[in-house]
Design a protein that fits this description.
The protein is an alpha/beta fold. It contains seven helices and ten strands. 37% of the residues lie in helices and 17% in strands. The chain starts with a helix and ends with a strand.
């Protein structure tokens, strides 16, 4: 996982300089090893469990209601396996736009989970399409942590928060 700490920023940097849309970035950085689910499809699914694969500071600003924080750099499978016993549970993993969540989705598949989806466009697309996000006090918020200033261009609705 530590190797990804060096490779991911490089890939993100390349994607940011060469690509101008979420679909292009996802096409460049993802293998599509975890099936995508689009925001519009969420309402047709029942009993979804959301897993937030971002970093703590991102989750603290906002997240999808009732999402379980699992993180990325410090992902611990025990958190998932202790909370989600049924390996056929419908799980939607998300991050900012869907790159980190694909990696965590792959880990879930390796753990034997059979109904794992990667939220296409992540929390950015969720918010862009009118989804409500919540802060740590479980209150709706317009703020979304955008990872950094460069990534913030992909969030078109809401207040952009980054450091």
């Amino acid at each position: 996982m530590r190797k990804s700490l060096y490779i991911l920023p490089l890939l993100f940097s390349l994607a940011m300089s060469a690509q101008q849309s979420i679909p292009r970035v996802l096409k460049m950085l993802n293998k599509e090893s975890v099936p995508y689910i689009k925001v519009a499809e969420l309402k047709d699914k029942k009993n979804l469990v959301y897993l937030d694969a971002r970093e703590p500071k991102e989750y603290q600003v906002s997240h999808i209601k009732n999402a379980l924080f699992v993180g990325y750099d410090d992902f611990k499978s025990e958190i998932v396996t202790s909370k989600i016993k049924d390996k056929s549970t419908a799980i939607v993993v998300y991050c900012s736009i869907g790159v980190r969540s694909e990696n965590i989705g792959e880990k879930l598949q390796q753990l034997g989970y059979t109904n794992v989806y990667n939220l296409y466009g992540g929390i950015f697309e969720y918010k862009n399409e009118g989804g409500t996000v919540y802060n740590l006090q479980n209150k709706p918020t317009d703020s979304v942590h955008t990872y950094n200033k460069k990534w913030s261009k992909y969030l078109t609705k809401g207040n952009k928060v980054y450091e």
